[in-house]
Amino acid sequence: MNFLIEAFKPACSISIKFSDGKTRKRVPIKRENGQTLLAPLFRNQENIAGKITIEPHQGKRIEHNGVKVELLGQIEMYLDRGNFYDFTSLVRELDVPGDIYERTTYPFEFSMVEMPYETYNGVNVRLRYVLKVTVSRNYGGSIIEYLNFLVHNYSPPPSINTSIKMEVGIEDCLHIEFEYNKSKYHLKDVIIGKIFFFLVKIKIKNMDIEIRRRESTVTGATNHVETETLAKFELMDGAPVRGESIPVRLFLSPYELTPTHRNINNKFSVKYYLNLVLVDEEGLRYFKQQQITIYRLPLQDT
Amino acid sequence: MIADGVEDEEKWLAAGIAGLQQNAFYMHRALDSNNIRDALKYSAQMLSELRTSRLSPHKYYELYMRAFDELRKLEMFFKEETRRGCSIVDLYELVQHAGNILPRLYLLCTVGSVYIKSKEAPAKDVLKDLVEMCRGIQHPVRGLFLRSYLAQVSRDKLPDIGSEYEGDADTVVDAVEFVLQNFTEMNKLWVRMQHQGPAREKEKREKERSELRDLVGKNLHVLSQIEGIDLDMYKETVLPRVLEQVVNCKDEIAQYYLMDCIIQVFPDEYHLQTLDVLLGAFPQLQPTVDIKTVLSRLMERLSNYAASSADVLPEFLQVEAFSKLNNAIGKVIEAQPDMPILGVITLYSSLLTFTLHVHPDRLDYADQVLGACVKKLSGKEKLEDKKATKQIVALLSAPLDKYNDIVTALKLSNYPRVMEYLDSETNKVMATVIIQSIMKNKTRISTADRVEALFELIKGLIKDLDDAFHDEVDEDDFKEEQNSVARLIQLLHSDDPEEMFKIICTVRKHILGGGPKRLPFTVPPLVFSSLKLVRQLQGQEENPFGEEESTTPKKIFQVLNQTVETLSNIPAPELALQLFLQCAEAANDCDLEPVAYEFFTQAYILYEEEISDSRAQVTAIHLIIGTLQRMHVFGVENRDTLTHKATGYSAKLLKKPDQCRAVYACSHLFWVDDQDNVKDGERVLLCLKRALRIANAAQQMSNAARGSAGSVTLFVEILNKYLYFFEKGNPQITVAAIQSLIELITTEMHSDSSTPDPAADAFFASTLRYMEFQKQKGGAIGEKYEPIKV
């Protein structure tokens, strides 16, 4: 029986190690099966270097047509399953065709890799970076090993960051003004603001602020939009009267946000909105949505 | 329906408590294992029970208190966490991640308390943040409880003067600002309750609101406890801000309660120094606010303050407290045209009490108050409102109590004018109060003017004020009243006869209108009071100044004559007769024969014409005889006329025994020891013999009518008279006569037909013993008695 198993086992084990693997920061990443594992984190235009070790099992000989390592940036659309769009694809040939008899280590390096997009795991779309090592063989199939890694890109604090201030209302019914201190927030930011009530004729039960993520994907000619509410935060309990002003202080850190992504490779966009919701005693909802931009400051990688 | 509501509420409360306890259990577990995330999670869930809208404030409070206890434990945990190195700033952020606002804010306040204690940030910043963030709760009940929690956890952490939280950045101003803001927000929420929910539940809502009022008032209490609030700050910041909120909230319940709170929690001294501001707020309150009670309490407090120490009185003068209060009351009354008269009077009553305490020397102030009261009452009918009249009595009693002296009150020109607005019943009560005050303090009222004023005040007792006489007046009460008037009349006295006479005339003028029921009570004291004056004058040299118009006994007797005559008209002849006789005796002492004669004549006329009752006649005739016997002023002729008449009346009495007794009494009219011209032994004997005859006749009549002889008492009595005159040396009374009388009595006593009468036997025996005794005594009397055989 052992013999049989042996036959189906890959002929060798391949391990990929980054040269700075011990010091490099690792962040959790969710896999499709729900488990999280820690993956190394890179930035745009970083050098990605390391070693690949191929170890044949029990003195087997591996005959191959060449060994290569690829660095792939892929966008996977769930609605169009199976289709990967590689927006980045770099290849390093590690070995010419021949045989491997023993444990062999190949160093590799991709320098100044263009990785303009962040890793993203959405509802309908996934953007990932992966190192793919291929030992090509004529028979028995090629031996392939993947290693996922993450890319986060930092933005400097925006030079212009105006507040969001707006008066909204329903005539003779409700008239409010809301103000959020900024239009662009970093991932650990705090939204400070206030809601001012000019006119309240409806019986308000409570007021919430929601953070909503709008993910739009383009599959062929069709456009698909998926909206999720990531945060629901109660701002007010009870009915205010005219002249009341309600403070807003919402810490973003507890929520799993990503930076705003605009038209990534013409495939998808991720936008964030603050949704102010007033609920009256009959359960009717009055809301106003405002787009905000979320960006990543350095050293904000949980 | 309602019962169901209550039951449901119990159920909801029970469910709330159960939920709270369950989460508290998990929270404790998390606390024990130092698991801060779980602790926060379960505490937030626990606090979520407070989000309910189903409980009445009363039940909600129960739930709140349980949560409160749990939060204390959580606070301890936070404290320990920070000691273990957990950053309080991080904690402060962490609790704000809670999605529901109410749990979030409770947690924030709890951590905030620890934050202030840690002193990692200025207390004022934390406080300001907390009080601002609490705005998120706009639900009145939940908001009130949350803010009350905030007030509770922060009260020992205010940057007050001398507090450990005071620093360069934190001053008492910040503490005040914080409390004021919390107070303002709480009051807004509290007032808002009134306007939420259906109109038909107004009453229920008002009840619920009153249950919550102390939550709001507690802020004012906290303010009053802040050491750093000195007078200046109170004047410049605290009071104006509080009043602004009170006035602007335009809510009846809140205004009433908070004004009262202000008055009760802050020191009197501050009130006194800020009277302008405080009083200025009153007219701006809602017209339905019960200002009178609040304002009365203020004045009461100030009065007590003034009474507490004489040192503070200058302060009152300095700030012109009286005129300020007076003005304020005027304005309030003007601003609230619908205020019931009761309110008006209560206000003035308090003001009066105030001024009496603070300015006891300023009678004009008191009069001013009464005047204002009159002005307000004028144009209105007599008061029907029982409470209002009661209040007026209190108002009018205040000066009496204070000065213990009606004289002072009499100086208040508006005093009687206020009394006019009382109904007759109350008027009487008030008059009684006045009289009692005089009695108690033994006030001397010694001028006619004051007497005039006094009687003006008590005229409710002096005459019937209403045309309709109240039949339902209790007889005993009436007597009580009139007796007190009588006592009052006795108290009026002046050492100056001239003035005293005027007083008498004044009193007379007033009481004569009193009607038949009152005169019998009021005339006698007046008569005796007049007679007292007569005696006084009689003791002096007559007319020391020789002035013509000065008071003479004659003049007084004229007045008396007329006065007593009124009694005979009502009719009260017996009383009149007695008084005439009293007057006659006084005239006798003054050597005024014609006057005395006149009085006797009056008495006789009354006897003849008015006194028809036989018993009354007996009493009257004895009075007449007694008085006449003492008269020495009469000449022979007048005396004869009067004695003759008296003897005649005596013989005409209805019952024989009465006749007999009157007649032997008459014997004294002819023999007066100290008057040598009145020693007519013959006529004495005649009288006694006549008495014997009548006694005999009585005996026989008794025999005839009842078959048994009457008692021998009459004979024994006559025997005693014999002995009296015998001892006095009346020559007509002989040993033989006495001897035969004794025998007669002995025979009568042993006759078969006689009725045994132990009293008469004893009387006779003791008479005999007396004679024996006199015999043995020896001397002139002994010799006299010697011949009599017993």
From TrEMBL, chain A:
A Pfam family this chain is assigned to: Vps26
Keywords: Protein transport, Transport
A Gene Ontology BP annotation from the UniProt entry: intracellular protein transport
Record-level GO cellular component terms: retromer complex
Gene3D superfamilies from the UniProt entry: 2.60.40.640
Family in the record: Belongs to the VPS26 family.
PANTHER family named among the record's database cross-references: VACUOLAR PROTEIN SORTING 26 RELATED
Protein known as: Vacuolar protein sorting-associated protein 26
Automatic annotation (TrEMBL), chain B:
Main location: cytoplasm
InterPro entries tied to this protein: ARM-type_fold, Vps35, Vps35_C
Localization (cell): Cytoplasm; Endosome membrane; Golgi apparatus, trans-Golgi network membrane; Prevacuolar compartment membrane
GO cellular component: cytosol; endosome membrane; Golgi apparatus; late endosome; retromer complex; retromer, cargo-selective complex
Annotated keywords: Cytoplasm, Endosome, Golgi apparatus, Membrane, Protein transport, Transport
Alphabetical list of Pfam families matching this protein: Vps35
Gene3D superfamilies according to UniProt: Vacuolar protein sorting-associated protein 35, helical subcomplex Vps35-C (1.25.40.660)
Organism domain of life: Eukaryota
Membrane topology: Peripheral membrane protein
Keyword Protein transport among record annotations: yes
Swiss-Prot/TrEMBL GO biological process terms: intracellular protein transport; retrograde transport, endosome to Golgi
Signal sequence, start to end: none
Family statement: Belongs to the VPS35 family.
Primary role: Plays a role in vesicular protein sorting.
Protein name, as recorded: Vacuolar protein sorting-associated protein 35
Lineage: Eukaryota, Viridiplantae, Streptophyta, Embryophyta, Tracheophyta
